[in-house]
Design a protein that fits this description.
With 186 residues, the chain is mostly helical. α1 packs antiparallel against α2, α1 packs across α3 and α6 packs across α7. The chain starts with a helix and ends with a helix.
Length: 186
């Protein structure tokens, strides 16, 4: 890679690393895993940096690499988790309701399959259109819509289940419903 390309990649990482880490954090629940995911994606992208003709699309390319990497990790994982009838209580150390709601949302995102999680992250957090999400994930717009519908239904079901088990889930359920209504209206 030419020296100018290396400097360009370094500048890109320096200016976009916070936003990219937030995207990685939304794809995997553990902050350390999110950092590993981003680093792995950056290494893979560095090797192909010269091939990205339009550098304005570097974020989309890197997000796709993160999604693919996360999917590889998920497929290769050892099944160390033991399914249980009842989920453990979500522990939230933040004192504000907004942080508690966000933590609960991130916790319930774990119930989604990787494909569903990717669609929810790209559509709702990254605010990509249905068509952009479809292009980024290599699927049709109809598949994105149906996957999003099923994922949101699963999240709603999980919130309702937790609300029945815990009184503290009430504000999170209202926040999720409010956020969902706002996004659907957009």
């Amino acid at each position: 890679m030419a020296h100018g390309e290396v400097l360009e990649f370094e500048e890109y990482v320096r200016t976009r690393q916070d936003a990219l880490l937030r995207s990685a954090r939304r794809l995997v629940p553990d902050p350390v895993d999110a950092q590993d995911l981003l680093q792995t994606a950056l290494v893979r992208t560095y090797g192909r940096w010269e091939g990205i003709a339009d550098k304005r699309l570097a974020d989309a390319y890197l997000r796709r690499v993160m999604i693919n990497t996360r999917t590889e990790w998920w497929r290769a994982r050892k099944l160390e988790e033991v399914p249980t009838e009842q989920l453990p209580d979500a522990s939230v150390d933040d004192s504000t309701e907004q942080h508690a709601d966000r933590a609960l949302l991130m916790d319930i995102m774990k119930v989604l399959a990787p494909k569903q999680r990717s669609v929810v992250v790209l559509r709702h957090w990254e605010q990509m259109s249905t068509e952009e999400t479809a292009a980024a994930l290599g699927m049709s717009a109809g598949t994105v819509k149906s996957t999003l519908h099923r994922a949101l239904a699963r999240l709603r079901q999980e919130l309702e289940s937790r609300a029945a088990d815990e009184e503290s889930a009430g504000p999170a359920a209202r926040a999720f419903e409010r956020e969902e209504r706002e996004r659907c209206a957009a």
